[in-house]
Amino acid sequence: MTSFISAWIWSERFWLPENVSWADLERPPAGVEYPRLQHMLCHAFPLAVGVLLFRLLFERLVARPCAHILQIQAGAPRRVQPNAVLERLYQSNTCPDTRQLEGLSKQLDWEERKIQRWFRIRRNQDRPTTQKKFCESMWRFTFYLVIFIYAICHLWVSPWMWDTRQCWHNYPFQPLSPGQYNYYVAELAFYWSLMVSQFTDVKRKDFMIMLVHHLATIFLITISYGNNMLRAGTLVMCVHDASDIFLEAAKLANYAKYQRLCDSLFVVFSISFFLTRLVIFPFWIVYSVLFESWQIIGPYQAWWLINGLLLVLQTLHIIWFYLIARIAVKAIFKGKVSKDDRSDIESSTDEDISSNGSKNCQTSKLRDSNHTRVLNGETHDH
């Protein structure tokens, strides 16, 4: 039964071009090595654990001292007065409506303004500190920067970077280079570590979206390695890592309260996102995978799947760039990419508390504008 399922999942008719079998890839010529998925997975899983441990050390020994130098303090949030009734409601509804406030006021013999204040302070308790978000962004910034430099050093001397038709010549019988292997293992280990750390990192509004994103990324890395589509795969990963460097840098500037630097970096991020994901990716990489591969090797079943996923990804790029462009325009003409930090820290003064509980919660949500969410680390872009 197990062998049947394995044969069905790794069907040669689906994953490989016509007249090519897995056995052909398992018997390379002397001095040549083809990708073997089991070898990469055996190294990627232990390395993912190592990445998690290294991240803990990095945040403690590098990122946190940098935060102190920039005077980004952890800052313990104000604690609320313990109340079992309010805490029970808070677990199911962090923003009670007017009817609930009236009921709680009668039950506890508290003024509605006092109850609103309790929920406001309680929400602040669950908000991550700026220092924690700074450390997370600094880790991602460091990884993206290092892996991008490594990729460029490898791809710069690779003929398929300058002539994408080289991605398909003699496919899938293309030798595996140490640079390709290291790049793939590092990227796969990193995304496996993100899968785990997502449950302990700052909780974000796009938690499920990013969970699906990480799973899809792991799936694409795995299948592209398994059927030896490494040349196109390395180009795709390199293009995606490039703009993320500037996004994380803009977040770091935002947390450090360097407003002008933050605005400038976000504009650079917007430009780099446009060039890499709306110009280079579709007109260079997707074009090669879609048309040049058709001309050289012809379509096969997995070819349709991979191209379909790349086109879906390009659609997401267009949607994301529309949102990013709106933020960049505000940064250029209004200079306030991150003026409002109230999405992270809510004031608990009486003057800031509305007499209407429902309106208060709606106001809090409206404060959390798109540009603030991006730079305060509540959303990701990959």
UniProtKB/TrEMBL annotation:
Reaction(s) catalysed (UniProt annotation): sphinganine + octadecanoyl-CoA = N-(octadecanoyl)-sphinganine + CoA + H(+)
InterPro entries for the chain: HD, Homeodomain-like_sf, Lag1/Lac1-like, TLC-dom
Organism: Poecilia mexicana
Any one cellular-component term (Gene Ontology): nucleus
Subcellular compartments: Endoplasmic reticulum membrane; Nucleus
GO MF annotation, one: DNA binding
Sequence ranges assigned to domain TLC in this UniProt record: 132-333
Membrane topology: Multi-pass membrane protein
Listed PANTHER family: CERAMIDE SYNTHASE 5, LONGEVITY ASSURANCE FACTOR 1 LAG1
Keywords, sorted A to Z: DNA-binding, Endoplasmic reticulum, Homeobox, Lipid biosynthesis, Lipid metabolism, Membrane, Nucleus, Transferase, Transmembrane, Transmembrane helix
Classification via SMART domains: TLC
CDD domains reported for this sequence: homeodomain
Protein name: Ceramide synthase 5
Domain Homeobox: 86-129
Biological pathway: Sphingolipid metabolism; Lipid metabolism; sphingolipid metabolism
GO biological process: ceramide biosynthetic process
Bilayer-crossing regions: 37-58, 141-161, 207-226, 265-290, 302-324
Region (Disordered): 341-382
DNA-binding region: 88-130
